[in-house]
Amino acid sequence: MNTEKKSLRLAGVYLILTVWAITTIYPFLWVINNSFKPTRLIRRDSFSLALGEKFTLDNYTTAFERVDIVGAYVNSLVISGTVTVLVMLFAGFAAYGLARYNFRGRRVAHSMVLAAMMFPVFSTIIPVFRMEFAWGIANTSSVPLSLLSVILPQIAGNLSFSIIILMGFLLSIPVDMEEAAYLDGCNVYQVYFKIIIPITKSAFATVAIFTFLWSYNDLFTQMYFLRYKNTFTVTRLLNEINSQAGVNYGLMAAAVVLVIVPVLLVYIFLQKNIIKGLTAGAIKG
Amino acid sequence: MDSMLFRKKKPLFLFFTPALIFMSVFLYYPFIFNVINSVMSISGLGSAATGINDPWYVNYVNLFTDKIMLTALKNTFITMGATVVFQLGIALVLALLVDGIPKGAQVFRTVYFFPIVISATALGLLFNLIFLYDGGMINNMLKSFGMQELIDWKGESLYMVTMLTPVMWQYVGFYFVIIVTGLNNISSDIYEAAAIDGASGFKRIRYISLPLIYNVLCTCLILAITGALKVFDLPFVMMGTGAPLDKSWLTGTYMYHQAFSRQDVDYASAIAILIVVLGVIISQALNMLFKEKDY
């Protein structure tokens, strides 16, 4: 093959790759641009830039004043933050126990963890709802209780996947260091917190990122447990705006942007870890 | 494994108890109860069962006589097929193309993966705006190209396209990353040897790249098909009422509809069981069909 033909082919390859990149990026740019325009303009002329007379911040004022997107952010961060921290704590413990201890029932415990990954959320949600409703924590207007009602099943839903990932990582580490620490007088808890956690940081990061994003985006669980406006998370609020806003397309666009932009910023800084975390999370049921 | 450190078993109790409690209370116990619920008569999410259904298996018969349920099943199978053809197909093509370029692979990877990070709910809203009948992005675009008639994207003929396009679009980047990682693991020695033997271009892809990522592709296939059973957010936000005329339900969204809007809780539980059974059967079958191969 001569060089000219080769470079022509390479140009074709770049062209195709760029076209797909544009289909990925363009919808986001389009919605950001339109979120700064009044609704009537979005419908008539959605491709012009929101400059000069077309520019308005009304959609954002509505989003902050009328639908309380800040409160929804707080609720989302409380839920997903708590779920992430507790999953890391409990899954780390369980993974360490499974990876290091020899005990009767170890194989049963291991298969219990594996099997727990097979339950899709559809098959547990109704009984969980009925149980939590009986406890009085689901579907209440009390914010802490409602958030708790989402946090509990979400922790359970992320544990088994996290245990598997962390266990795989722990098994690849030789126990020599832990033994040395033991001979120097550390007990098993000190060994865990002072040695194991520092050396398994990257595996914990994978688990944390996956758990956080999954919890933050999980509309299904939130649809069941959050019924009152003051308990809404960002995702739940978006769904509400979708069904209530009617033809207020400006508000819809602004709400989408307010959800996408923070994630975009985090993604730019942490993209390597995020990609790793989410592809590892593929095995989750 | 039998180090002195781990002889004392007491700490094990603390290590294992929290995870065990959570999994038992929020996964195992509800799962069993869901099976029980599916043969009871329950007419509200918060209300107690009023007894066993007569006959107890009536919900399971309904699953296969309820026309809308059959539509939901059909749509779910179509979704599975579409994920394989479009998500995997596009991802594979893009991955093979990226593998051959000297610069910029990292940029494409970052861009393609981005939609997966965004909540499907936000994407649902975004695509609602894009597919809007009067003034949506696509109809506006077509109008500027001189099309007179607006296209009803959520109407009788195009609802599946409208519902599935965003789902396909969102996940291409995911499989792209997995396949590219597989391609990167192929040692360059093999390609060099092949070049000396005169294999290039399509031959190189057909006889080296594809066979060597066979296992990766099988994993992706299983993930894509079983993942299609769990699709919920995007179709729910875009077609939450089964529009048009109960035609666009998927198993997941229909289950939610039965539990919430119809308050037929026991029937919804039966649908959930069907989702589990389908998932198990399909993943077992796929695992048997696509056994790992060694090269």
Structural class assignment of chain B: mainly alpha
Low-confidence stretches of chain B: none
Largest sheet properties of chain B: none
Q: Strand percentage of chain B, roughly?
A: under 5%
The portion of residues forming beta strands of chain A comes to under 5%
Question: Please, what is the average pLDDT of chain B?
Answer: 85
Task: Specify the biggest β-sheet of chain A.
Answer: none
Q: What sequence of helices (H) and strands (E) makes up the elements of chain B?
A: HHHHHHHHHHHHH
Radius of gyration of chain B: 24 Å
Distance between the termini of chain A: 48 Å
Count of helical regions of chain B? 13
Residue ranges of chain A: pLDDT <50 for 5 or more in a row?
none
Order of helices and strands of chain A: HHHHHHHHHHHHH
- Overall average residue pLDDT of chain A: 86
What's the CATH topology label of chain B?
MetI-like fold
* Number of E strands of chain B: 0
Oligomeric state of the chains in view: heterodimer
Envelope shape of chain A: globular
Number of domains of chain A: 2
